[in-house]
Amino acid sequence: MVFCTALVVQWDHVHLQDNYNLGSFTFQATLHKTGRIVFAYKELPIEISQISSVNHPVKVGLSDAFVVVHKIQQIPNVRRRTIYEYHRVELTKTRITNSSAVEIMPLPTCLQFTSCSACISSQINFNCSWCHRLN
């Protein structure tokens, strides 16, 4: 039996659509079972802060988001996608360089506890709205 403790996704030799000749990017994201996230950057042909956001967004970090697909009544078979983003964690673009890594540690949540007593005695410093004793 195999137990997975992490999921690694790697992007190899990715080019900017509007500047293909610039060179390629190679980077990866690792999602650990514990909630820890590691972004590793192997090859970056240009500083992230120098990438133009005219043709595509330039973001470094992570966020919760959802997509809503809207039908356009005036044009059949055409849909517009809108991304709604919230809880954003932005990383400093200048810190992302060749052979660098960024580690993001999860904040404590109720899900880490296996009993009500462990949750009640914890010092996780957020307002719990689920537990009847903490209100």
UniProtKB/TrEMBL annotation:
Pfam families: PSI (PF01437). It is a single-pass type I membrane protein. InterPro entries: Plexin_repeat, PLXDC. Gene3D superfamilies: ligand-binding face of the semaphorins, domain 2. Keywords: Glycoprotein, Membrane, Signal, Transmembrane, Transmembrane helix. SUPFAM superfamilies: Plexin repeat. Signal peptide: none annotated. It is found in: Membrane. PANTHER family: PLEXIN DOMAIN-CONTAINING PROTEIN 2, TUMOR ENDOTHELIAL MARKER 7 RELATED. Belongs to the plexin family. This is Plexin domain-containing protein 2. It comes from Ilyodon furcidens.
